[in-house]
């Protein structure tokens, strides 16, 4: 395998700042943003008569219990990890309840669509938390300069 010598190449300033900003995002936020879509993928790929069919309810329940709530809790400035877990579980369960009530009123029995709505909530809140993490690192760099 040949290596390309990049010592003489200069990275434009805005690209290096973008790379630093992306590195400032905690990996947990990336996982939270993708978790709902992975749970939905599990419901589509794993058939009910499969030998690993037990993974379907486990993946969905784990996401529904913690996923949307954890993403929203990362947007709120909380002091302790215990507070973050309490808010995550409380918001996760209440968001499931509200989405289910809304779909019941609309007379829509689609569980997949409910999971899509919850995944969209988790992704949106994760993106907001990512933006907040990037903004806090750039403001910290501004203070250090």
UniProtKB/TrEMBL annotation:
The UniProt keyword set, sorted, is: Membrane, Transmembrane, Transmembrane helix
- Which regions span the lipid bilayer? 24-42, 54-73, 85-106, 113-134
Does the entry feature the keyword Membrane, yes or no?
yes
Q: What is this protein called?
A: DUF1616 domain-containing protein
**Taxonomic source organism:** Rhodococcus chondri
């Amino acid at each position: 395998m040949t290596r390309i010598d990049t010592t003489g190449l200069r990275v434009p300033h805005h690209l290096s700042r973008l790379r630093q900003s992306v590195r400032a995002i905690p990996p947990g936020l990336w996982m939270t943003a993708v978790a709902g879509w992975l749970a939905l993928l599990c419901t589509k790929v794993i058939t009910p008569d499969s030998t690993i069919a037990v993974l379907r309810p486990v993946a969905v329940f784990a996401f529904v219990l913690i996923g949307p709530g954890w993403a929203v809790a990362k947007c709120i400035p909380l002091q302790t990890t215990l507070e973050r877990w309490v808010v995550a579980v409380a918001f996760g369960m209440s968001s499931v309840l509200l989405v289910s009530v809304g779909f019941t009123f609309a007379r829509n029995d689609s569980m997949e669509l409910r999971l899509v709505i919850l995944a969209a909530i988790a992704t949106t809140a994760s993106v907001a938390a990512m933006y907040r993490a990037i903004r806090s690192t750039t403001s910290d760099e501004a203070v250090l300069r």
